[in-house]
Amino acid sequence: MFTIKTFSGAVLALAMGVMGVITAPAARAETVALNPDHPDRHTVVRGDTLWGISSRFLRDPWQWQEVWRINPDIQNPHRIYPGDVVFLTMQDGQPVLQVEPGPAHPRNSSPASESVLAQSSAAHATVTPTGLRVVKLSPQVRMAGLDLAIPTIPMDIINPFLLRARVVTQEEMNDAPYIVSLEEGRVSSGMGQKAYVRNLADNAGMQFGVFHQTVAYRNPGAKREDVLGYEAIQVAEARVDRFGDPATLMLTASYRETLLGDRLLPMTQEEINPFLLPRAYDKPTPGKIVAVVDGVSKIGQYQVVAINLGTRDGVEPGHVFIVNQAGTQVRDGVQPARKGNIVTLPEERAGVLLVFRPFERVSYALVVTAEKEIRQYDAVVAP
What we know:
Layout: E1 6-7, E2 32-33, E3 41-43, H1 50-57, E4 85-91, E5 94-100, E6 116-127, E7 133-144, H2 155-163, E8 165-168, H3 170-175, E9 178-182, E10 188-189, E11 194-198, E12 207-217, E13 229-242, E14 247-254, E15 258-259, E16 263-266, E17 271-272, E18 279-280, E19 287-292, E20 298-299, E21 304-307, E22 319-325, E23 329-331, E24 342-344, E25 348-358, E26 363-370, E27 374-375, E28 379-381
């Protein structure tokens, strides 16, 4: 039987400078509880995440920054690398986590080399039988300035939602150019084939993403027309070969089948920081899980969900929410004749979410902890 050890107060703010111990005043924090099974030391290995390491030491991993002590010998103090050793000590009666740099730690790397996730195109050249050299551009995930620091959460799980998914409004979908026909009357098409598009302005640009509208995100019990947003999944990339009504497109890359009615949206070059800073959502606004990606009814760890809170509610990447399982209804069998004999049980904590991509009214979040079965329409609240 273990007893959770608790400590009050923040220990140290994150460093604001590059060399030396430069700190900002730390705000007073809620009680920090250590994981009862915490180790004294952990050697970072490839495949670790900041959340996973935090979970080893802390009961509530989003409180990492409240007990994180910057090592003045490390030029990029917010990065942890395979081979580094994270260790727990006590200073002035408070728990402190520090890092001992491993042999592969880039102590002298430039701040400009911090890794960001981006979408780029790789060129692949082939030669046809007639001697013509053909260069095809295909999009790929790029880690700019890759320095092998461990990310906050598993990037392979969320990459599709960073690069191939958007939440758009009904107006955006209605106004977007749409595929009215495919080459040779096909019902679906792929890379290297033509598509014909209406509603494309002559000055709209040359490169587009082709998107398929899938799920409508609605609040529980909302009217059909009350939509928070629509999930749009990118199925292809396209280049305009000829403007007109219809315009002619060439599908230059394909991720899924392109269908009649698919929409064109401008290509974006978003850069996503994989080193999210986990922290508690600090507003009282409650929310709900409004959709589960892939349509499963029961949600487990490392599944992606959509919640009905977004940037207009102050949600930012890295914000953490507690999932409360909706209370079930039971019949009062002790006094069945009593008025109100259907009783709703209290909500129970079921897991933890970390937001990695917010939109205006909807956010994508990863289930980082699943303590009980999580379902659509479970409540999400600030820790």
